[in-house]
Amino acid sequence: MEYNYTDSLKTRLRRIEGQVRGVLRLMDEGKPCKEVVAQLSAVRNASDKALAQMVAENLQQCIMAEQEAGNKDTDKLVKEAIELLVKSR
Asked: Cβ distance 16 to 46 under 8 Å?
């Protein structure tokens, strides 16, 4: 199955990429640890949201594909998605 990653997800990841560059800039400028940690925390939160969005969109696509194939039992797909989220933490 080919995965379709949405433009909103790609935009979210580009924003995270910019945040990481910002953290590196803060470090290069010798900013206090507190500022760097605050920005890294923002990167982590943004990354967590991107991950959750990706799993949710993927799950939706997989469930729709299974239903189109005539399989109504999608419990396994939901369990796999939950495991992905749990492992990511």
From this structure: yes
